[in-house]
Each structure stands twice: as structure tokens, then as C-alpha cells.
Amino acid sequence: MVLKATSVLLTTIIFVITPLSTYALEPGVKAPDFTLQSSDGNSYTLSDYIGNHSVVLAWFPRAFSPGCTLECKSFAEYGHVLDEMGIAYFMASTDNIKRVVKFAKALDAQFPILSDSNKQVSRQYGVLFLGMASKRVTFYIDKDGKIAHVDDDVRPETAAQDIVRKIKELGI
Q1: Cα angle, residue 109 at apex, residues 41 and 114 outer, rounded to 5°
Q2: Alpha-carbon distances of 162 from 35, 106, 151, 155, rounded to whole Å
Q3: Which residue is catalytic, options 25, 56, 68, 92?
Q4: What is residue 41's predicted lDDT score, i.e. its pLDDT?
Q5: Is 68 tagged catalytic?
């Protein structure tokens, strides 16, 4: 138990102190397409939204961790504003589908939380950390399917409100 707690602590420290300075996906680059299973029992494909909706893809490290729980609560509380704006939004992690479903139910998340348990999509987006989990990074994808903005300074407790502000600023 002590070893597991130490491992979790070290992983948390690494996530916090390791900055994300560059990504393979910069603004203007086409976002990699994906299809991922969701907490609501459906699968979601990015290309289904291209041409109709801007998309927000908010990666988070681990379901039930303190920061990720705050971020999910922010989406649960303010997601209706994103809906009203016509934005397709998803949270995503490398947790397996069972954990993602349990997390969504525990927080009454009425939006899709995606599971990338094989870590393929998180690798494509450049957010996989040490081959273990995704970092907390939000991608803003415009209606043309291009990256409009990458935010690696996400504040979990105000994530959804910050996204609304950024979408207005970007005009996507």
C-alpha cells in the first residue's frame, strides 16, 4: 500500500512540475481523427463533427484524482453553456472504459467522457506522459478540423468557464 501511495505521489509530482512546451499538434494543423468509446455507451468519431461543429477535447490524467474530479465537475456544471454554443465537447483519458463509466456516473456527468485505454489517440495528440497517462491538455478544434488552440495550463476548477471564454476569443 505504501509503494502504491508513493507511486501515485511521484506521478502527481511529475505531472505538476513537468511543463508541456511543444506539441506535434500546433494551431493550423489538422487534428488526427479518432473513434473512442464513451461513458454513455456510444463511440464518438471526430470526423462526424467536422463541417458542423467546433470540438473541444479535454484530456485529463486519471479518473477520480482530485484535479480530474474538479475538472469533470466544472464540465458537469457549465456544460449546458457549451451545448447552447453548439460546441461538441469531450473529456478523455487513458483510463479503461469501466473506470470512465464509473467516474461519469459518480459525478453525474451528462456529457461523453472518452476512454483511450490503448493510448493510441493520446500518442497522436502528443499528450501521453511516460507511456502511462495523458497530461491535462485541452485542444480546441475548429469546424474545418484544424487545431485552433492548445491549452496546457488548464485550471481544473474553472475548466469549462475558461473554455467558454477561449471559444469566444477564438471565434470558433
Answers
A1: 45
A2: 26, 23, 10, 8
A3: 68
A4: 98
A5: yes
Q: What is the pLDDT of residue 69?
A: 95
Nearest residue to 57 (alpha-carbon basis) of 30, 87, 14, 85: 87
Q: Decide: 2 and 10 in contact? Cβ < 8 Å.
A: no
What is the β-pairing status of strands 133-134 and 128-129?
A: antiparallel
Structural domain span for residue 54:
22-170
Q: Which CATH number belongs to the domain containing residue 112 in this structure?
A: 3.40.30.10
- Asked whether the beta carbons of 94 and 134 are under 8 A apart, the reply is yes
Domain count, the chain: 1
Which regions in the chain score pLDDT beneath 50? Answer: 10, 17-22
pTM as predicted: 0.86
